Amino acid sequence: MLSNEEMRTAEWSMRMEKDFWLERWKREEIGFHQNETNPYLRQYWQELHPANGSEVFVPLCGKSRDMQWLREQGHSVLGVELSAVAVRAFFKENDRAPHHVAGENFARYEAGGIRILCGDFFDLGKGALAQVGAVYDRASLVALPPEMRERYARHLVNILPPATQILLITFDYPQPEMPGPPFAVSVNEVESLYREHAKIRRLAQLDVLAQNPRFRERGLSRLQENIFLLTLRN
Fold first, then answer.
1. Contact at 8 Å (CB) between 48 and 229?
2. Residue 62 and residue 28: Cα distance in Å, rounded?
3. Cα separation, 223 vs 234, whole angstroms
4. Is the pLDDT of residue 96 over 60?
5. Which CATH number characterizes residue 153's domain?
6. 172: exposed, middle or buried (C-beta count within 10 Å: 0-12, 13-18, 19+)?
7. Is the pLDDT of residue 126 over 60?
8. Could you tell me the pTM of the whole model?
9. Cα of 226 vs its chain's centroid, Å
10. How far is the C-alpha of 127 from the C-alpha of 217, rounded, in Å?
């Protein structure tokens, strides 16, 4: 059980993390955003087999075009995003006029089979994800500092239905060479976070430093991307 001091420290860290991302979106400092559909999503999504009619959940979704691609595959999509700037930008850039409903913890934006809850991921409960059959995590786990990743993973598996599949993409590099985000998340850390809750299958490990000159310029000597398929246990 956390002491009062540890709880205060954790709450302060979370507030700072929220402010960091809200400011990034406000200033349009979004180098992490991809203007095209992620190639690993296209290549490996076929490894997942969500039940017919189930939703795909995209945590910390930003304005990712991957949500539009998932919708084009016939899936209904549920995202959660802290920044209203990002949510409004997603619908505007995809020529959609969303229905908007304000709520206590989340504002809901919805159009064309894509629904985004604008608010704090950690305020989500099981009810919001009851129809989810698959998760796409490209930019969530790697966006969080080490002290928040365990809480993120624990909360995610607690609110997802049993047997949900997760396509997880992570970066791995020598963390001292570059401050995150994106943060380095090793294969061992993924196993430590999820092995009690899920079957873990690594689909690919790719050396990608040559394709990412901006990371070489920041001083990295090694950069790998790992793609995992996690299947939650019943």
1. yes
2. 12
3. 34
4. yes
5. 3.40.50.150
6. buried
7. yes
8. 0.89
9. 15
10. 44
